[in-house]
Every structure is written in C-alpha cells, then in structure tokens.
Model the fold of this input.
Amino acid sequence: MTVLKNILLAGAAIALLGGAASAADLPRRAAPPVFVPVPVFTWTGFYAGFNAGYAFSESDTLRTTGIGALQNNVNAGLRRANVKLSQEGFTGGGQIGYNVQFTPGSGFVIGVEADAQYTDLQRTQTDSIFLPVFNPNRLTNTYRTEVGFIGTVRGRIGYAFDRVLVYGTGGFAYGDVTHSVGFTTGAPTTYAGSRSSMETGYAYGGGIEYALPTESFLNFFKSSAVTVKAEYLRYDLGSRNLLVASTGGPGVGYNTRFRTEGSLVRAGVNYKFGTY
Done:
C-alpha cells in the first residue's frame, strides 16, 4: 500500500513539473508599443522677428523749374533742371505677423505682416557753377534728401511645400522723409526750401521662407518654430514739390520735385509661437 502511495505521489509531481515547463514555453503577452505620430508642420500662428539688409533708391532724379522769369536761369544751366541723387545704405528692423495655412503639410498660406526699419538712405550733393556769360558770380546749388525709416502693413499669400514657403506680398507703406534745397549767388543763400514729413504710399514684393528644426541653435526664445527668410520689397512714397523760395534774391523762387521710391533687399529670422 505504501509503495502504491509513493508511486502516485511521484506521478503527480512529474505531471506538475511538466505543466510548469510547458507553460514556460508559451509566448508571453506584452502590451503593444504606443504609436506616437510625428506632428505635421503648419505655418499657422503668430510670429515676430528681425531683419537686416540693403536699401537703395531707384527714381532719384530731382527736377527743378523756375517760377516766372527765373526759368531763364534753369534754361541757362545756372540752376540745373535735372540732378541725379541716388542713395544706398543699410536697413535693419523688426516685423510681426500672423499666418493661416489651410492644409497642414503643403497648401496655401495667407497672412498679414507689419514691419518697421531704420534706413541709412541719405545724400547731399553740392554743385558749383560759374558761367560768366550769364552771371558774373559763382553759383552754388545744394541738394539733400533723406529717408530715416520705412514701415509697412502688408498682406501675404503663398504656397507652402511643407517647411518651405514661397510668397508674394503687398500693402501700405509709410516713411520719414526729409528734402532740402539751397541756391546761392556769391556768398548769401538767395533761395532755400526744406520739408520733413511722414509720407505714405505702397509696397510690394515677395520672398521665400524656411522653417528650421525646433531644436535649432537660433531658437533662443524656445518658440514652436524658427524660420529664416530672404525678401525683396519695392516701396513708393510718391512725389512732392518743394518751394525753394527767395530769401532776398529776385523773383519768387523755384520748384524742385522729389520722388521717394526704392527697394529693400533683406534677410530675416522669425520666431513662431502657437501650433507646431
């Protein structure tokens, strides 16, 4: 009896060990990996940034006419009818704006942008004229023009190829403009005029912008994206007549017409906040 009991206990132990070994051979059920989709870049959102570049004027011919009999001095070349006064220099400033992209990834983008920048556009030219056949004195003509800063408020429309945006832009422009003219006969200034005012007009152009990786070394402000751009803008602030009035000379004076227009070629960095 005891022998039978021992045989039964041994068989049960072997069965238990065999079941445990079989269970160990079965595949374990682990939780499936969590799929985290890579976010699709979108240009939608608010941005702010900086720009710097090169500014130059285009239609820079000053045109002078005499009032009444003083037109004879213009005809004789004592006061030049046309004077080229080109300008060029540095420009730098900042911009803010907001974009809306209709379809993330690639698609149309519209937006609005406002900017303001200092412009190193200034030029002074002095002509010394001696024509004794018409006047025994040496005449000096001095012209000065300056654009201190330019600002714009523009719409933008473009097409995004994922992180590359190609766009056109256009809208309102304004600028601080100074013009002055002085005509002398001998020593005294016999005719003079100047004006400094905020002029308005329009601007248009286009550019290309690229979104860098978020972890770019340029991302000082921990924004959702950093973009770099290259842009061309043409501005036109219109034409104005300046009265170069008599300060003791004969007649009323002269009219000199200035036209304020030119171009900005610049690069910029924007910091985008909001959506990825």
User: Anything to note?
Assistant: Confidence is low (pLDDT under 50) at residues 12-17, 20-24. The longest helix spans residues 2-25. Residues 2-273 form a domain with the Porin fold (CATH 2.40.160.20). The CA atoms of residues 201 and 237 lie 4 Å apart.
